[in-house]
Batch of 3 targets.
Target 1
Amino acid sequence: MTTIDESTVIAEQETDYGTPRVASDETATVTVDGREVSVPAGTSVMRAAAEAGIEIPKLCATDSLAAFGSCRLCLVEVEGGKGTPASCTTPCSDGMVVRTDTEQVQDLRRNVMELYLSDHPTDCDGCARGSCEMQKWARATGVAEVRYGLDGASHLADTTDHSNPYFDYDPAACIVCSRCVRACSETQGTFALTVDGRGFDSRVSAGGTDFLNSECVSCGACVQACPTDALTERSVVQLGMPTRSVVTTCAYCGVGCSFKAEVQGSGEDTRVVRMTPWKDGGANEGHSCVKGRFAYGYAAHDDRQMEPMVRDSIDDEWRVVSWDEAIAKVADGFRAIQDEHGVGYIGGISSSRCTNEEVYVVQKMVRAAFGNNNVDTCARVCHSPTGYGLNHAFGTSAGTQDFRSVEQADVILLIGANPTDAHPVFASRMKKRLRAGARIIVADPRRIDLVRSPHVEASFHLPVRPGTNVAFVNAMAHVIVTEGLLDEEFVRSRTEGTDGYLEFIAQPEHSPEATESETGIPAPELRAAARLYAAGPNSAIYYGLGVTEHSQGSTMVMGMANLAMLTGNLGREGVGVNPLRGQNNVQGSCDMGSFPHELPGYRHVSRADVRDIYESLWGVTIQPEPGLRIPNMFDSAIGGSFLGLYVQGEDIAQSDPNTQHVEAALRAMELVVVQDLFLNETARFAHVFLPGASFLEKDGTFTNAERRLNRVRPVMPSRVGKDEWQVVCEIATAMGYPMSYGSAAEIMEEIAATTPTFAGVSFARLDAEGSMQWPVTDAAPHGTPTMHVGQFVRGLGQLTPTVYVPTTERANRRFPLVLTTGRILSQYNVGAQTRRTPNSTWHPEDVLEIHPSDAELRGISDGDVVELSSRVGATRLTALVSERMPAGVVYTTFHHPVTGANVVTTENSDWATNCPEYKVTAVQVTVATEASRAEAGEAPEAVSHDMPVGAMARHRR
Amino acid sequence: MSGDVPPVVRLGHDLVRNFEALPPEKAAEEIATHIKKFWEPRMRRDLVARVRAGEVDDPLLAKAAEDLLEGDVDREEVKEPSGG
Ligand code: SF4
Ligand code: SF4
Ligand code: FES
């Protein structure tokens, strides 16, 4: 089992340089207190001093925010200069000589500090605990006592705001340095906080209400920035300060933020005190969202299943057994099915929530121990069209840029993605760029936050009707080609299939005017948007599941690739085609050979040269034909030709479309094995339950949406006694194929040795470099932030005529509305984790958003329980009448099993990858009658009226 | 309801809709290549059997099944990475 390094003792080891790093080719050399230091020109004196190892006292400055210069604690003397400038706002100039410790400076600082302390509680818990910096600076400035007296006017009696479930705001400890206010605007981009009042009366305020009811999205940036105890994690108040820390990676979304898990205790008694965003994290650069920052409590939740369990029939009670017995039951059961029916009657599903190493081992178990290729991963139901489409066009199944690239974008074309909810930390980076002047085109049926929110105003909102994406992207390309807006040099020198494509796309049927009735986008708007995208000069496409989860998901991905190639927006910073991947390791799980037709590194099983690599290493024969995809497994199960399934950390019964069909398939199987943290919906149909480990217990890597391999490091040993990869190895071994590794690092060694794009990856190198973006090869030993520079991976880029084929799932008389699905900020996918945290404060149930006119027509009012039905099923939800929806389209999330959004979604799927068409289901919505309620059992609770009305609940408005 | 259509035929129809804008010969080959590349052999056999039994009335799908039987697929394309 994984060994845990508990040696990292938390100290003030993360230097706060006071002001952000400056990028400049020129350097300035300055002398601070006799020490010479060279810094990029434009660097503040404060930062230069910090780099020379000299810490200048500061209150209003921190290196995640632009200098503000308000507290006057950081004064210095500059030789030959006048007065005592604030070091945070004074840029270094070459040859400057600075003194930080003269008597005059010390006197001034002492005065400032005394003033601050006169309005700071003497019994500040934070000072005692070490979570408040005041004590430290008092000591540093030599303030032993406060001369102004504590009995004057103060804010010490102000009451604490406990409304946010994760942090408290205690105005008494606030020094109005405005770091929180600036963090909320600069870092997060939400502008929820203001400084109200003037002078002594000024106070930080969450828009005049409490935090929960404000626009606050609970990202934690203000808590991180606060130098005092005014904003403190509730967990720190309750548990005290952490004693050691481990840098690891968030296990929620595909942004892949790095965090410092700060903990107390050791071994099995380890307790997480808080997760703080890691400044050096390549994906997040010190920022976080409410999920990664606060919603980790599920890992210690009582619902967590800690022991293996078995039962003979799904109607029996579970029986707790030893690991040995459970593993024997799995191995014997699978072998019995194969002996009786055939090798191909069993298979496995790997999870995008698990590490690369765990996923690799699952596909190895299937190919080597099961002896077939029946392995698939949950990317099947989200981003498989991304892999297919981008590979087809460019030769790589991944996004083209790193996240930082957005800082160079001039025009952002956002399609079918809602980053402020689903990829919040990247959204903050995007919003920062938009505030700096970049423009954004939003193509989405809903009026998402990025259409209009504080300091963001989309140049165009194109409300593309669900199911018509390809018609839309073709119209964009048509304008670019027929109006001569293309980058001819790029198209001529870097693409193929060019003539055929140009001829195809210039046909009048693709014009905005011809497609307007289909897409719902006014032609003049679309033309103007296409011109803006073509004008760039740097235009970048970002997209999400609103692109992939369609019957033409793969075609649409190729269509966007066409658009980028036509305009030359590839192969440099600020451009590209960028999938915002859903799950933390969806990129990685695909890379690791989880698809039934491809070995690791996307190499088809029919290639003898590739099979050779694995056959000689593993000592088995690998089937040269593809195996079953997830939906094929279900169909085969119902047809009687698939009887045993191992499912790693995925809740197919809740997340996959057409729940009745999935349940029928699971019921038809003889042996279903679920490995998970919780007894999820799928476990209702399982015969063996194997307890899983949480990310806090894992050693390994996740690969985020920018192809970045981040280390996942365990903060405690597996609470169930085994690592997940170890369990998989033991199943394989019990089936007669011995499989074992000494550590997760060894698994990565095997991946690197067999997969060219990962050749240079190892845990040791990742630990040394922080993170790396694949391909990591001899030619790119530190990884590849931007792909396709100068040449595409496949050589020339492939322009493909993207024929628009309307989905067969059309609104009709019986089902006149179109349902589309998505997710919201506070919850994550099927909610297995977030529902087990206070995040449910913001989203206690899934609701159905419906346009006022559609609601009125049906006599539906806000808060009514409605029945949502499609041709495959019906469910009930609470209605939310919302102007965000276009007429004719309704929307819901799928975070709660009770509402079962997938009861109504259909078996339709992307033609190429079978990614389900979640985003288009023809439905009818009616007010639920008593009879229909009784039939379906308990009605969902009506909207509770003490719900927060702030930004997190905005979907309700 | 499409639930009554055998899964392989439903999936086959999806491919037909996507490729039918191409000339028929080319379309059939593309469909056959796709099936060769992504479908598990039992599914392929199921489709071919249904075509032979006259259960598939779509001529393009029937032609694709024939191509498949005769190995009329783009073998180079089958080996190419797909990533989905
Ligand atoms: S937690 Fe809320 S108030 Fe604080 S920075 Fe984030 S959004 Fe702003
Ligand atoms: S943005 Fe994604 S990866 Fe980052 S903290 Fe939030 S959920 Fe985790
Ligand atoms: S830290 Fe420089 S003025 Fe506050």
Target 2
Amino acid sequence: MSVVHPVATVANGGAPGSTGGDGTNHKLDVSIWRGGKNGRFVSYGITLRESQTVLDVVTYIQRHVDSTLSYRFSCRVGMCGSCAMTVNGVSRWTCRTHVSEVVKDGRLEIAPLSGLEVVKDLSVDMTGFFEKWTRAKGAFVPGPGPSRDFAVVSPDSPQRRKVDAAIECIGCGVCYAACDVVSWNDDYLGPAALNRAWTLYNDVRDAGNDKRLAAVAGNVGCLSCHSQQSCVKWCPKHLNPTASIAGLKRATVKAALAGRL
Amino acid sequence: MKVRTETLLWLAQRLSAMVLVVGAIVHVSTNIYAVRGGLTAAEIIDRVHGSTAWLAFYLVFAAVAAIHGPLGLRTVLNEMTPVRGRAADLVALVLGVGILWLGWRAAFGLFG
Amino acid sequence: MAKPVARRNCRNHSNYWAFAVHRISGVVLVLYLPVHFYVIGLAIKSEAALQSFFSLAENPLVRLAETILIITFVIHVTGGLRLLLIEFLAWRDWQKTVIAVSGGISLAVGLVFLFNVF
Ligand code: SF4
Ligand code: SF4
Ligand code: FES
């Protein structure tokens, strides 16, 4: 259901610069999810400025139209991973997504990230997402005894390269929200947690791989992934969780055959 | 189900898939050849009748199909239907035994 | 899992479609398999029983259905080969090509079958 907010249509700032790139005003119809899981979409008419990101639009509405709008962001430059939302049906990092890339017929529908419980408006409870990182043994496990020296890991070593390919995850949850298996199987650890486990599996300093493999094996883990690659398609950091998960599949199968699982 | 069993079932599904790929190439190409000018029962029976090589091929082909198909269906049931866990295992088991029985029966029937 | 409050549209890309085709064709094939084996098993009774069934298959509609089944089978096999490559080999960026090749082979085989059968 969609209703027009009583004070929704306002001029955007009113400064002379508040026009589109070609000097005309671009009207933007923004529908935003309001309330908890039984909430509804409320539409706001605003004027789009040049180079605005989706996060800019949300911030504008919160500052100038309705200060009770809740959403989450921090760095605004694509580093912290806190600003992910569902924009026109697709999970996105909103601080680095320009409205012009995603707008359809002058409309923008902004909803909370799917796959997680809505707290209010555009903010979701990320607990379930990060709990799965813990369950996937996503924390470094030091070896026994104090390390005497710096571990030297050559940047060209094959293992280090595998880590490099997967390490830049910002924990935004975009992949998690895009993955069908996450929505089918409550316990499925999801692309981000499994990708994280893969980086640690290849970390030569880490001593926790037996437990880690047991945690990421089976139907809650890598074997449930069907290589649909929605995670690859939408990950804003252009990571490839599917490739990491395929690596885990091979590793867990080897472990199972060797009786280590 | 234990993680190790799950992993081995997954592997069985993939290994049977590899055998099926090879079998499929043989099966589809012989049948495209066989249907030229209409499919006749005599044609098929003549080819397989008394041939241990064809019998062995079809026995293996049917067996891996009986492993691969039901395991795949089990995953689909678990993910997309209310038939989950033990119930899905049971469906897969019954289907697997059924396919194996019908498949071998057919292979021996052609062999004669 | 928390139900998404809004529609989701993350699936419209080639690898997802390849997954969907693989799943649907897989379910069709596993249900068709017992029927197929049953029919061939008619040979156990007599050649005539099998032949009478094949004569039924003279019907163009049945022929068309057979062709579709063959395409379904080949598409599942070639698509499955693609999955095996993804899962068992180190990653390469060629999946889109493999999807196209898989679709192409399936259609080609289907057409050859169609021309042969009529
Ligand atoms: S490739 Fe695997 S993890 Fe990624 S979206 Fe698909 S099922 Fe989920
Ligand atoms: S893998 Fe990509 S999409 Fe997933 S949480 Fe990390 S950065 Fe976000
Ligand atoms: S606000 Fe930090 S990634 Fe978007």
Target 3
Amino acid sequence: MADTIDAYSIQNWLESCPQSYLMDTEYGHGPEEKEPDFILDNEVVLEETIKATVQLVVGERCALSASSGLINAAPDEASRRFLATQTLDEARHVEVFTHRLYDLGVKKQDLEGTIQRYANPNLVKFAEILLEKVDRKDFVSGVVGQNIVLEGMAFSVFEMMHAMNEPVNAKFAHTLSGTIADERRHVGFGENRIGSLIQQHPEKRPEVEQMQKEMSYFMLATFADAFRNNQTANELEAAGIERPHSEYQGVDLGTMEPEEMEQVLADTVLKEFKTRLGRIGIEYQTPARP
Amino acid sequence: MVDPLQSPEEVEGRTERRRFVLEETGFDEVPKRYRKFYRKWRGPGDQLGPNEAICPVCKVVIRSSRELWPGDRLYCMPCMSRLVVVESADGTLEARVSY
Ligand SMILES: [Fe+2]
Ligand SMILES: [Fe+2]
Ligand SMILES: [Zn+2]
């Protein structure tokens, strides 16, 4: 199979993505699928959902800038073509999550204002660290920051959100499963391409490790803000709506306090960083805990 | 060659690999002719068959039409990783990335 389709080719992307799981979708979900009433009819839950979706848009806008910026920093033709497909994937993610904001009632003219109001400053810092590397055309740091740190985080966050949404919101679960499928290619590219490049550039290690430590800190701070101030669980309880008993990493998300969920997610992502970085020969640096 | 088992390794003392008939699993993240060779992992309680291994990079379960043995080389199409099957300390099979 590796012999029949070039892994980083546009052809592989066409057959795997638009001609496969994105077939017959509109903005990432089935044309008939809608956001559920328990979100749309409850002001508090609606606002929390908008807030959470804004963070996804912010993260994806960063991924779009990073992957497009890295095209011209890539040392080889195959990487440039792969990053072109990733750029389109990330642009699609920006679009589908933005469209979700519209589905949640955000008016087009209020989009930027809504993003500015709710964007988590720690997530913005996280993005700035990465984009500074991309601006300097530092391919090794850029790919580790984007395809291992940012995407490693996104992968776990999307999986957790998917587990929570699957029983109660088929529309958003569908959108998430398409983005998870895209992320598989992105993390695969990150590890496989950088795994060999870092061996050729061992002098890059300290800088990359420092970047990972800083990005991880701002990621944890973002998680802390997102879970600790979240009113969704209380509001659903007050309204007599039982949270779904979704399983994630062997625990029941339907019975956990938000702080416990934060802990599970943070531990999962950091553990993933450690193994992913370890595989490519970079020593994971433990971030400070916010 | 559509099977993810790219180069089967000879293992001393073992002669014949068990064969498996693969059916569609609903996995749709690769071109059609490759789909039955993958499935989604259902989390920590999910039991793997003797012809299956989890991709450590993208967490998809890779399935071959033949039993997997240590030393086998696998290709994970959803994330484009090349892997080697190894026997872990507890005797179960595990896939490791090879760069
Ligand atoms: Fe993305
Ligand atoms: Fe991505
Ligand atoms: Zn994989």
